[in-house]
Amino acid sequence: MLEPERGLSLTIARVVQRLQGSSLHSQLERQARVSLHKPEIKLESLKEDIKDFLKTSGWEKKLQNAVYSELNVFPSPCHPAAPPEHIKEPLAYMRKAQGSWEKRILKSLNSMCTELNIPLAQKRPANEQKELLNKWNEMGTDEPDLSLFRPVYAPKDFLEVLMNLRNPNYENGEQPSFRNHLGLIQVPLKVKDIPELKEDFNELGLNIGQLGIDDSAQVPPEFFENEHVRVGQKVLAEQDSAAAQQYVRQGCPTALRADLWALILNISNQPEDILYYEQLKSNVIQHDLLVDSLIYKDVKLTASNDDYYFVFEDYLYQVLLCFSRDTSVLEHFTYSSATPPKSYIQGKLGMEEYAVFYPPNGVIPFHGFSMYVAPLCFLYHEPSKLYQIFREMYVRFFFRLHSISSHPSGIVSLCLLFETLLQTHLPQLFYHLREIGAQPLRISFKWMVRAFSGYLATDQLLLLWDRILGYNSLEILAVLAAAVFAFRAVNLMEVTSLAAAEAVLADLSTLKVMPLLQIFLFATVT
Amino acid sequence: MGGGLPVPVPAVGGGCRCRYRGDAVVGLRSPVPQVQEIVFRNFYTAFLSVRVQRPGPGGSRRWMTCLRDLCLMPCPHTEEGSQDYFCLHRHQMLCDLDQVTAMRFILRQPSPVWLHFTIEDLQIFPPGQKSPQKDFPSWLSQLTPPEQPASLHGELPDPEKVSTEVQQMWVLTEVIRARQAAARIGRFDVDGCYDVNLLSYT
Predict the structure, then answer these.
(1) What phi, psi does A456 have (nearest 5°)?
(2) Where is the Rab-GAP TBC domain (chain A) (predicted)?
């Protein structure tokens, strides 16, 4: 806890430090220098005149967007005495659990490596490099033998770990008592209740227009849709990130979505960004990683089998292979509870000058990882822009879905939020499912870990992800999961086994997301 | 690390079947007569009160409350704030922290779900020595002070408070020299080599 003034200075300093040396910084300097030739800049009031010039030419807005982006992504500064691991994750036992989980993953990857006798990384021979370069745009046609590879872990393995999370300072008695939670998650994290969620998500209220509800065929577009599109166009013209983030809470019109998301994530696809992507591509060509095979396998098993996403198979390789080589992703580990795996080249164990991260971006993909990218392919067709959008979405949101932390948008909190909402508002259903051995989280976990990608129809998924961006939080995933159970409660009350419950909830492709959320939050009698 | 004097604080609570958690009191001799800042790490304490023994009117030493029920955990049954770092500054206190001879930290944890609660890494700083600060860039020392908003009470801001704040900012900038912004180089290999065989567990 920090006093407001000191917290503000720390925040300002941190943002400045991060923006210093960025391309925006040099562009601003260049603009300021260029403006000196302009007649309206006078020597006596140089500072003020340049500031005014930057304001009118739109550069101040770009700076504002960059600052807003930093504030959104990085956590508020804690006390200076707090060590770096505290910023990653304040609770010691969660840090420990994440460390053990990571060790398991490393062991799994190492054993796969030794069994298959394949190095984790090696330089590609020249002829292979040439071949890969030639078929860069159609890597999906390749059919490598992936039968020996297996995903490092699947969501259900991760769920087992989360179920066993315990706070050693909490009275986890063997006897059932008020201290034990009825669900699978047994850690006492603070989660919001419906009144708090109603306040947080108040733009989803019954009396506020929503895309996904008020743009349906029965509703004349004059009531809401036309005006909403007009406002969206204005927001894009102003190029204001904060306004865009507020706007998308009511949903994005399809035609404007790609630009609005790029504005919120502060992605502008400058020449240097395209160059950076090309650099990553050349890294893919030069070095062959074991992780590439895991990515191939994942895409083949998940996205390629999906009716909506199989057409984007080639894009997925182009994004994910480059993602693995992107060292800028390492920055997110300052605020993520996870730590990137380390290794030593040429077998020189323990010698720091030969230490590297593996993979270069520190992220080992798991089964279903490619589904984070697939929906974005509907919006962006230029590989470098698609790549940047995905990378930003990952370092802002998706990384929280597969690491153990106490963050309100972390998967542990989302699971607890889901279970608490269900218990509180559908106690009979919760009790019934528990009695038949069908703990609800066992079914909804995979939805939340994938942010519902691959489970909802794509237009519905994009409406859901609009709200993730708009509220800068993943809590809506837990609310939707509970709302889906509420919607199918009648059928679920009649099932007598986990398998039957899974069958009732197997197909979510016909669900309309926004009405479900609205009814659960605002129209259910509590 | 800034000259703070670490003070050992025993854990309280115990794993007995005692239902009422309630209070724990930690008393200690004040290491310094003048206290500027108190820094500690929480461990499941919900509310903190601090009392200090100092000379009162008439010369005799008496106990005075300088902090009453500061909320460390907004929801005592849940984890929020349970292991956070806190910093208590002189000007947040209800009384002056001069000529302090002893201090009492009264820890409260009304929730029965926790086995132990205490505060850890307690450090007490006298004036003139700064607690460890994060790095700040040098430009911060060249900042023009923000325009003073029109004061609601028609009073001038307390010059001592302003000068301490400016002093603090100055020290922060001095601690941080011009740190180069971490430019993205993008290299993940070592001299062109990235032959990796096994991952390291340490």
Answers:
(1) -95, 160
(2) 251-472
What integer pLDDT is reported at residue B129 of this predicted model?
63
Q: Which residues of B touch A114 (CB under 8 A)?
A: 198
Ramachandran class of A472: left when φ > 0, alpha when ψ lies in -120 to 50, beta otherwise: left
Q: What is the ipTM of this complex?
A: 0.86
Residue range B148-182, pLDDT digits in tens? 454 455 456 667 766 666 666 665 555 554 444 44
Contact B195 A80 (CB under 8 A): no
**Residue A150, C-beta contacts closer than 8 angstroms, at least 6 positions apart:** A112, A297
A156 vs B: CB within 8 A: no
Q: CB under 8 Å to A48, separation ≥6 — which residues?
A: none
> Over the stretch A1-32, which tens digit does the pLDDT of each residue have?
456 666 777 778 788 888 887 888 888 888 88
Provide the number of structural domains found in chain B: 1
pLDDT at B134 over 60: no
Considering the domain boundaries, does residue B79 fall inside one?
yes
Interface of B with A in 123-152 (CB under 8 A): 123, 131-137, 139-140
CATH number, domain containing residue B65: 2.60.120.260
**pLDDT value of residue B9:** 54
CB contact under 8 A, A82 and B85: yes
Using a CB–CB cutoff of 8 Å, tell me whether A121 touches chain B: yes
Residue of chain A with shortest Cα separation from B91: A3
B1 within domain boundaries: no
pTM (2 decimals)? Answer: 0.87
B91, B131, B187, B188: best to mutate for the A interface, most A CBs within 10 A: B188
Tell me what pLDDT residue B12 has: 46
Whole-number pLDDT of residue A229: 94
Q: Which residues pair with B7 in a beta bridge?
A: B122
The mean per-residue pLDDT over the stretch B119-134 comes to 74
Q: Which regions in chain A score pLDDT beneath 50?
A: 1
In a domain, B179, yes or no: no
- Listed residue (A496, A487, A476) closest to A397, CA to CA: A476
**Residue-range definition of the domain harbouring residue B35:** 7-132
Q: How do residues B57-98 score in pLDDT, each as one tens digit?
A: 777 888 899 999 999 999 999 999 999 999 998 888 888 888
**Residues A331-362: b if buried by 16+ CB within 10 A, e if exposed:** bbbebbbbbbbbbbbeeeeeeeebebbbbbbb
Phi, psi of A288 (to 5 degrees): -100, 125
Q: Are residues A169 and B134, on separate chains, in Cβ contact within 8 Å?
A: no
Sheet holding A355-357, edge to edge: A287-289, A121-123, B196-200, A342-345, A355-357
Q: What is the pLDDT of residue B172?
A: 58
A79 touches chain B (CB under 8 A): yes
B19 reaches A (C-beta below 8 A): no
Least CA distance to B13: which residue of chain A? A169
> DSSP per residue over A142-175, as a string?
-----TT---S--HHHHHHHHHT---TTB---SS
On whether any CB of chain B is under 8 Å from the CB of A84, the answer is no
Report the amino acid identity of residue A82.
Answer: A
